[in-house]
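Continuing the batch. This is chain 6 of the set; chains 1 through 5 are on the previous pages. Same settings as before, nothing changed between runs. Recording input and output for traceability.
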Amino acid sequence: MDAAGAGALIVFALLLAFNQVAIKIVNEGLQPVFFAALRSVGGAICMGLWIRLRGHRFELPPGTLKWGVAIGAVFAVEFIALFVALDLTTVTRTSVIFYSMPLWLAVAAHFLLPGEKMHKAKAVGLLLAFAGVAWAIIMRGSEERGTASLIGDLAALVGAWGWAAVALIVRATPLKQLRPEMQNFLQLALSIPFLFIASLFFGPFIRDLVPLHGFLFLFQVFAIVSFGFMFWMWLLTIYRAAEVAAFSFLSPLFGILLGWLILGERVTAPILLAGGLVAAGLLLINRPAPGGKKAQVPQKV
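Output for chain 6:
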């Protein structure tokens, strides 16, 4: 990969890490699940317009509608968990745990998807990443009291499982016939009713709303859900999926950095160790088997 591609992917990983900071800040003004529902509405509108401008139709091949509903439900669970996690625990901890998704996807793919058996390097990577996640959840210093909760950490873990489940559904069902833009549109659009219904059980919709929250909400809709996805797909047209996927290890590290830099979160030795273990594990998980190819690690925006 050339320097321009590497630089673009580093910036993209940084953008995804800032995404979690933005969610945590907007949670101060909007109820997290209601915020997730509004984000899906805005994202679905933008993706729908993009699909229309590209001249593509919204037709679904036979057998895909039920899987579209299923992926919308799982997508909703994933983002309920992520947004609640960022309401209850720190960005640093959420980043380490949530971006462990390739670990859970690799384990599930080993048993459920043909041709995705583990090789030695991937197995070592799985052990390192699992150790990092377990360490992040178990070890919490006294300086994190009041800012990081076990429930929040576990919600981030559920979010990672939901992300892995979405990837499995796309790869193992007729949804794989759809263009990536349509897959993303279905996830966003069909998650909306589930998210709005769930939001009824999480308290008042409006908290202490200020203009900054509105700005960061629009940033979420346009820069992350819309532009971020299209930028990711554009990179995949230029570089090999294996090369692009290898940069996924940066997301938890950037999450730790931005949580400290922007929000003033305490970065403890245990969370640094956990982030390092997860990052090292992701690097090994993305290494191809001897004579084989790497699988693409889907990015979550």
